[in-house]
Recover the amino acids of this structure.
């Protein structure tokens, strides 16, 4: 059981036990109205709540409550005041009828990127969505704490539930947990390096990690993979807006369309109210239904794990 975030425990609303620090599908269905009324996703509420029956000091409870209020910025309110609703309808009615078919327009799919050769060849013992603490360790990883969240959507803009979101990245010293680099003496052994999350009914995901440093010829980036059912439908990378190395980074510059390239470059913003210099970044991904063809990404086959397939 983790001591702070992402810990195992029961749902604070209905008492159901989560799987891998996330709510079960049954719990998500029963508690959807409850969590929507609080304007925050169920999975995030669980992460920021202590397990039932566990004593938490007042100072800790205040900090968790403050985090909940701050993290509401990840979620848009699900209601509109009656007066605002009427005003919006009056102003937008003519535009609605003049743009017939606009809502049927497909969203642009998030560009794919190489998986690279350093996807973990051995998964860590802890694979939850808090990369800063491994299992019950009380020593956090070093780095700029980053709250990474967003939604997984289909081409129509509908949320995709129960999709598996994987991320993997280097630690504060630029080292992956892949066996090829994991034995370097500079590696932060308190950094998990890999995490996964199952999206909620609203398609949302959330990770607590660090802002990735640049290393070698690579710009700052976090690897993503999205899995629907038994198929990986997207592999891509998130880049840090303002990083000067983006101009010379190989993978991002293989995308020639500036608009597509910008879809992968996001601002890491200061977390409002944080005294520890924490950051937030929102990264929505639009995925298709066609499984990826591994042969289109030859770089991944430099990873020894594929030699067993």
């Amino acid at each position: 059981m983790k001591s702070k975030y992402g810990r195992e425990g029961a749902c604070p609303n209905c008492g159901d036990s989560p799987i891998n620090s996330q709510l079960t599908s049954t719990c998500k269905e029963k508690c959807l109205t409850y969590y929507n009324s609080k304007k925050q996703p169920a999975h995030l509420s669980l992460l920021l709540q202590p397990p039932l029956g566990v004593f938490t000091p007042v100072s800790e409870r205040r900090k968790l409550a403050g985090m909940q209020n701050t993290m509401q910025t990840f979620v848009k309110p699900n209601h509109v005041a009656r007066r605002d609703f009427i005003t919006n309808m009056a102003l937008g009615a003519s535009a609605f009828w003049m743009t017939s078919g606009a809502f049927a327009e497909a969203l642009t799919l998030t560009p794919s990127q190489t998986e690279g050769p350093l996807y973990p060849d051995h998964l860590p013992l802890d694979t939850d969505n808090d990369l800063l603490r491994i299992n019950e360790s009380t020593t956090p990883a070093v780095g700029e704490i980053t709250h990474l969240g967003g939604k997984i959507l289909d081409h129509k803009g509908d949320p995709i539930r129960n999709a598996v979101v994987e991320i993997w990245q280097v630690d504060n010293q630029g080292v992956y947990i892949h066996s090829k680099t994991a034995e370097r003496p500079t590696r932060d052994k308190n950094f998990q390096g890999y995490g996964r999350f199952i999206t909620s009914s609203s398609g949302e995901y959330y990770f607590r990690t660090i802002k990735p440093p640049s290393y070698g010829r690579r710009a700052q980036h976090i690897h993503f993979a999205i899995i629907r059912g038994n198929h990986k439908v997207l592999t891509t990378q998130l880049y840090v807006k303002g990083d000067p190395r983006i101009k010379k980074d190989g993978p991002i510059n293989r995308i020639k369309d500036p608009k597509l390239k910008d879809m992968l470059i996001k601002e890491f913003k200061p977390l409002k109210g944080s005294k520890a210099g924490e950051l937030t970044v929102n990264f929505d991904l639009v995925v298709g239904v066609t499984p990826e063809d591994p042969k289109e990404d030859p770089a991944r086959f430099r990873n020894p794990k594929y030699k067993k397939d």
Observations:
- Confidence is low (pLDDT under 50) at residues 1-10, 16-26, 32-104.
- The longest helix spans residues 82-98.
- The chain has two domains: 1-104, 145-308.
